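Input structure tokens:
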């Protein structure tokens, strides 16, 4: 097995160097007058069908004993993927839809083969791959971007990969409404390490370039560190299927989202990431803190909270504003125009924490498809970022750390008659405004809103310890 992986790595490096020479117009073949010591390898753009299939299977390598195939309902219009079964719709054997495939004792899974990949590329069917292997390892990592701003998100992620030295390839999804970023490894690596790498790059992207949604952490392939019981893990559709490819979809693109003119030359030039580069890359991306960069308290922390180590926060890279206006209402509102990207990212993560239910399910090898990895309580408005009121002290501590002058102004609460009737029960709902100025440096207090309010004298907070 080790010799086969070494040979595959050497062949991949050889194909990559040939593609680089060809892309720069450098002639590397011997002239006809010179004797050739052996048969020369073909140019990547002129690979034979067999060589293309071999290259494709080497890069997009997952489970070999089973593969998912796409189906479409003729009348319902629904579509999805299901493990390919040799007995599907076989008379007297298959009992769909009365019995689900997962509960069928007559299911005969079809292994992945060269013919299956050829039919996918030729348009006979659409197949995917299960990236998580049975020993909890994988050969690649993929990140899915399918939100409304997927173009900007994908570009920002690829920029971070370039800054961190992570070789990544960007593919437009088959629908044309999203993208996949692929990172291929030179050998199989643990799924946990690959996902830590993806998480670290996402966090690096949020800190340096663009605030990605916290749901991005749930769009990693493989989606779990370990194989769930009785399942195959999550799947991802394979690229370069004929029909979407002819429409400019399911193809690999450059930084400007333009398809590469020669898809096979591009694939042959991909440099897989060595396994020993993963940990140093995570360290560069995170600066030594947890890759998720959000709060997480495990069972050991709950049992012995006095032993819990608190990592020192990294110095924010962007220049901090001289002052900020923070509005206290039903939530804590920060004006986006005043926030640099790094500070906005840190504020959003104050209201986010890792979901313990996700890790419990994963530890028991159960499905986590409906359990988000990160729970975020921040809200993103067109001009403001809103945090729960309970995050006020943490937010102000953050301002103190970076010597930023902050002013809080409580907006008057315009109550309905129903709320007013109950104000005696909850005095905190009474329509008064509390303005509080933090003891940093002199700055102007802005009290938003037009409702009548009662001003209280400014009371300085205790200095930070």
């Amino acid at each position: 097995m080790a010799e086969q992986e070494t040979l595959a790595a050497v062949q991949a490096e050889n194909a990559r160097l040939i593609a680089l020479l060809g892309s720069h117009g450098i002639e590397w073949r011997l002239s006809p007058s010179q004797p050739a010591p052996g048969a020369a390898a073909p140019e990547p753009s002129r690979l034979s069908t067999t060589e293309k299939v071999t290259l494709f299977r080497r890069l997009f390598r997952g489970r070999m004993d089973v593969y998912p195939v796409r189906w479409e309902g003729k009348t319902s219009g629904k579509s999805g993927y299901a493990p390919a079964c040799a007995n599907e719709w076989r008379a007297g054997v298959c009992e769909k839809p009365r019995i689900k495939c997962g509960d069928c004792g007559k299911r005969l899974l079809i292994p992945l083969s060269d013919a299956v990949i050829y039919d996918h590329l030729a348009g006979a069917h659409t197949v995917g791959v299960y990236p998580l292997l049975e020993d909890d390892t994988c050969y690649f990592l993929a990140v899915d971007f399918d939100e409304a701003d997927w173009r900007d998100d994908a570009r920002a992620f690829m920029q971070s990969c370039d800054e961190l030295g992570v070789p990544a390839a960007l593919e437009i999804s088959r629908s044309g409404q999203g993208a996949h970023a692929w990172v291929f490894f030179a050998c199989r690596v643990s799924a946990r390490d690959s996902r830590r790498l993806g998480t670290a790059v996402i966090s690096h992207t949020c800190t340096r370039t663009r605030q990605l949604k916290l749901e991005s952490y749930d769009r990693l392939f493989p989606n779990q560190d370990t194989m769930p019981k009785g399942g195959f893990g999550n799947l991802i559709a394979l690229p370069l299927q004929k029909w979407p490819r002819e429409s400019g979809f399911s193809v690999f693109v450059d930084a400007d989202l333009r398809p590469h003119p020669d898809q096979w030359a591009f694939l042959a030039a991909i440099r897989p990431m060595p396994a020993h580069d993963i940990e140093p890359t995570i360290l560069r991306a995170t600066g030594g803190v947890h890759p998720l960069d959000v709060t997480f308290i495990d069972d050991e922390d709950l049992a012995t909270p006095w032993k819990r180590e608190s990592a020192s926060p990294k110095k924010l890279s962007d220049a901090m504003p001289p002052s900020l206006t923070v509005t206290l209402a039903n939530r804590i509102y920060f004006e986006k125009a005043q926030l640099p990207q790094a500070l906005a990212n840190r504020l959003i993560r104050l209201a986010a924490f890792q979901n313990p239910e996700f890790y419990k399910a994963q530890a028991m090898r159960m499905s986590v498809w409906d359990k988000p990895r990160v729970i975020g309580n921040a809200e993103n408005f067109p001009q403001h970022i809103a945090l729960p009121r309970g995050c006020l002290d943490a937010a102000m501590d953050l301002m103190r750390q970076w010597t930023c002058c902050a002013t809080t102004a409580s907006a008057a609460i315009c109550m309905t008659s129903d709320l007013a009737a109950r104000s005696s029960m909850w005095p905190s709902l009474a329509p008064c405004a509390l303005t509080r100025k933090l003891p940093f440096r002199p700055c102007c207090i802005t009290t938003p809103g037009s409702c009548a309010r009662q001003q209280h004298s400014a009371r300085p907070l205790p200095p930070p310890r």
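Residues 167 and 357 are 33 Å apart (CA to CA). The chain has three domains: 2-18+131-286, 68-110, 301-413+425-465.
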